Amino acid sequence: MKKVKIYTWADRRPDFIEKQYETLKHFIKDEEWEFIVFNNAPFFAFSRSRAIKKECSRLGLKCSDVRFRTFVNGPAQICAWGIDYMFQRFARWDRKHIHVILDSDMFFVNDFNFNEYLGENCVAALHHTSKKDESIEYLWNGFVIFDGEKLPDHNRFIFACGKNIGKASRTDVGGRLYYWLKNNPEAKVKRIKHTAYLNEISDKISILPERVRDSYNPDFGFQFIEAAILHYRAGSNWQKSSEDFVDKKSEYFNKLLGLVMSGEANLPSVNEHYQDYYKV
């Protein structure tokens, strides 16, 4: 079994670091793993940066600054820059380990073994397709597992947003991975299954534990991945939701996570409500 390195990027919610770390300690079943935090706050956001570093120091976690982050604008571009910085500076040269890209607002809610899940594949990821051109397929950045030794074509493994690919004028984070997939058809890529968003048009609310199902607000837009991860979504509040909404969402999230961590509530296994693609 290989050691697993799990990376996340913190900016506006340093309080998520401890919650994420606690769920990893509770549910990850690999023999050896390490959790590494990248400080993705801009250089002049001193209070945010200090809060992230202070939290990591308190928890005994490695914390590295994302260099030149200050010169990048736009939520998608900032996200992509942080991941590519990590990959180009660290992961692409490390062939000994399994590497995991994990959004800062994703929390484990069930047992998970990265070595067993990845198996003989070189990558496991959620697949994105473009609504404007369904032939444009790429890997979503939120949750990616890859084996440093088996991953081919490191030069094209880039998470930057794509421009003018097929009929799509632009893509989300990871769009440039369209070229990696196209140029590496023999690569063994596992499709990660997920529920998409539990919103007002979703028929998947039944996935939530019955104890908290009726109090769920569809606007929260939670997502479950492989029945093992709860994706809070928009943890940085890039949607500019009101303070009252964010407080209520956080309150519900803390209640749900507490029930799962204590064993008072369980999530169903992957079922017909899960899919292996995104359309954006």
Structure in words:
The chain has two domains: 4-191, Spore Coat Polysaccharide Biosynthesis Protein SpsA, Chain A, CATH 3.90.550; 205-279, no CATH class. Helices cover 28% and strands 22% of the residues. The chain is built from seven helices and 13 strands. The strands form three sheets. Strands 1, 2, 3, 4, 6, 7, 10 and 13 form an eight-stranded mixed beta sheet that branches. The longest helix is centred in the last third of the chain and has 20 residues, at 243-262. The two termini are 36 Å apart. 36% of the residues are buried.
Q: Which overall shape is indicated by the principal axes computed on the Cα atoms?
A: globular
Number of distinct helices: 7
The overall pLDDT, averaged over residues, is: 92
Overall domain count: 2
**Rg estimate, integer Å:** 18 Å
| SSE arrangement, N to C | EHEHEHEEHEEEEHEHEEHE
- Describe the biggest sheet? 8 strands, mixed
Portion of residues in beta strands equals 15-25%
Distance between the termini: 36 Å
Number of strands: 13
Percent helix: 25-40%
CATH fold-level name of the largest domain = Spore Coat Polysaccharide Biosynthesis Protein SpsA, Chain A
The CATH superfamily of the largest domain turns out to be: Spore Coat Polysaccharide Biosynthesis Protein SpsA, Chain A
Q: Quick one: CATH class of the largest domain?
A: Alpha Beta
> Regions with pLDDT < 50 over 5+ consecutive residues?
none
